[in-house]
Amino acid sequence: MTDAAAAEASCDGQATEALRQRLLLAALSRRLPEAALAGWLGTGPVPAARGLQAYRANAAASARRALAAAYPSVARAIGDEALAALARRLWHEAPPLHGDLALWGDGLPALIAAEVPLADWPWLADLARLDWALHRAAQAADGWLAQADLPPGLSALAEPEAVHHQLLLQPGLAVLRSSWPVVALW
Fold first, then answer.
1. Could you tell me if 126 and 182 are in contact, meaning their C-beta atoms sit under 8 angstroms apart?
2. N or C: which end of the chain has fewer CB within 10 A?
3. What are phi and psi of 86, to 5 degrees?
């Protein structure tokens, strides 16, 4: 086999695997009937439906854990059962786009705001926004300060050269406006 043919076969194999994974994710989130995977799952000791059910249960547990990590204040406020229900709903409505579940979950505040049973807690969506902002700030790039050309301190702002200084915002900085005392609730 020539190098070009091997490269083409490798690309075909990667495209086939990517398609298989997309179909599996669609079936896991019930956006695609299980029958659509019949040719991909093959036959084995475990029926395909049972295998998908196990994957779905694992996905639901992973979704709940990911949201509990990203939204600890919300998790404490509503409890594990309600968080698990929100996680399942968010997983179906806005499934992860990346393999890293720490990047998933930004849609929870909007879901909470739209959720009628949570209307008794009008501050909960803003608390979720604060949790998400803190979660993203914790993941922001480190080392930005070492790369910055910083003045010697705040006293440098009183010097005539202060007009040449720039304000450097840390990656992960977020501004949150709320009508509720979310910091106190947090």
1. yes
2. N
3. -65, -40
Rounded Cα distance, 111 and 125, in Å = 8
Pair 92, 30: CB distance under 8 Å: yes
Rounded Cα–Cα distance for residues 31 and 35 (Å): 12
Q: For 153-185, how does the pLDDT look when each residue is reduced to its tens digit (9 = 90+)?
A: 777 778 888 888 777 777 888 889 999 999 999
Task: Return all residues near 89 (Cβ < 8 A) that are at least 6 apart.
Answer: 111
Q: What does the alpha-carbon distance between residue 70 and residue 128 come to, in Å, rounded to a whole number? A: 9
Q: Which two tokens stand for residue 119?
A: 């209307």
Cα–Cα distance for residue pair 53/15, rounded to 1 Å: 26
- How far is it, in rounded angstroms, from Cα 163 to Cα 165? 6
Burial class (CB in 10 A: 0-12, 13-18, 19+), 172: middle
What values do phi and psi take at 108, rounded to 5?
A: -65, -45
Q: What is the pLDDT of residues 74-108, one digit of tens each?
A: 999 999 999 999 999 998 889 888 778 888 999 99
Cβ atoms of 144 and 170 within 8 Å: the answer is yes
Looking at residue 80, its amino acid is D
What is d(CA 64, CA 86) in angstroms, rounded to the nearest whole number?
8
